Q: What sequence folds into this?
């Protein structure tokens, strides 16, 4: 799984068939797993911060975002739906 080499943690690449972004098994239209160590590491290196659920759902359709937000809400997780909708509008305007 993970290795410690020369004081550094090595994260292996995703398994065959897994999402190349987060390393989890999910459909292309489904959100990334923001709790995935691989996703957190890659996202932080690129953006300088850790990902949020809004980031993990950024590529999803409005229908998927709404469904996933409801699922997160049942688990006690709050998601900034307005932020998600602003991102969707920005993409459509481009």
A:
């Amino acid at each position: 799984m993970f290795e410690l080499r020369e004081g550094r943690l090595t994260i292996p690449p995703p398994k065959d068939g897994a999402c190349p972004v987060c390393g989890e098994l999910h459909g292309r239209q489904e959100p990334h797993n923001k709790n995935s160590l691989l996703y957190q590491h890659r996202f932080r290196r690129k953006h300088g911060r850790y990902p949020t659920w809004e980031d993990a759902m950024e590529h999803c359709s409005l229908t998927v975002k709404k469904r996933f937000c409801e699922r997160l809400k049942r688990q006690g997780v709050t998601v900034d739906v307005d932020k998600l909708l602003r991102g969707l509008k920005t993409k459509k305007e481009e």
